[in-house]
Amino acid sequence: MLFLVQDGITNGAIYALLGLALVLVFAVTRVILIPQGEFVTYGALTYASLAAGQMPGTAKLALALGIGAFAFDLFEARKALHGRLIVRGLITNIALPAIVLALTLYFAAQKPPVAICIALSLVIVAMIGLYIYRIAFQPLAHTSVLVLLIASVGVHLALQGLGLLFFGAEGQRGPAVLSGAFTAGALRFTGQSITVYAITIAFIVGLWLFFGLTLYGKALRATAVNRLGARLAGIRTTLSGQIAFLLASVIGALSGILIVPITTLYYDSGFLIGLKGFVAAIIGGLVSYPLTAVAALVVGIVEAFSSFYASNYKEVIVFMLLIPVLLLRSLAAPAVEEEKD
Question: Of 48, 54, 68, 290, which one has the greatest count of Cβ atoms within 10 A?
Fold first, then answer.
């Protein structure tokens, strides 16, 4: 039982990170981020590819998306173009990903150390998340949640297909972030599992400090509470969306880097992992960060016990957790009459 609980907590820590990212993005932008799983896959397989001395296609994708984002910026500001705007767009959307691509080409041929692989993977996936928001979601920011959900599904399918193109159908594993192991009583802790716990706790504490003490964090909280009120108070909701997607993509990539030394990941593995983070986010009502973190640990422990006692029904049991939660929420919610045509 102790082994299963330990395994569940390790998995639950990963799901907690993903659930927090989903809650953050939905609260700020109203986007249900289906591609969160692809951020996991891209981060994991980019890290594994670099560690194996291979050139990941995600670096080229970041540059292509940056060029697209630059074109969108130019088109949106076509009536008020000025040199400062063009230069800023060139630096952030084209020069930056081009520099990262050059660094990736250089280091990929040399099998870089783990720290460089992690840094490059996080930067690449962070840029992809930022540019995807600019291209796919920022123009739709004022539409309904349903339209944003459809766009999210479209982005997920596109990124999953590109993942197959970049990494192939074969699975990959990466080197451990921290090697070594120690025993405490009946339990054995590996360096990788300790890394998972430490990074999860650090990220949760960091997000708490970010939202509570920084100006940008308070702006994100204000946007999540009342988007229109935040705009009237002078907060740029577009910038809030960019920060939310940037944080979500970094969290997704970091989660993938933590997972890939433990288990083999494929180009489409991230979708199922992201869905389990989504289960935790739904239990948290897509609004509560602490409840989402606790729910993620519950999901991880239930998954561990299900794998041991009923492995064929593991996924079914995990996703069945949603049914009682949704029933309770529907009973507690006030009745709303459907709009008539």
Answer: 48
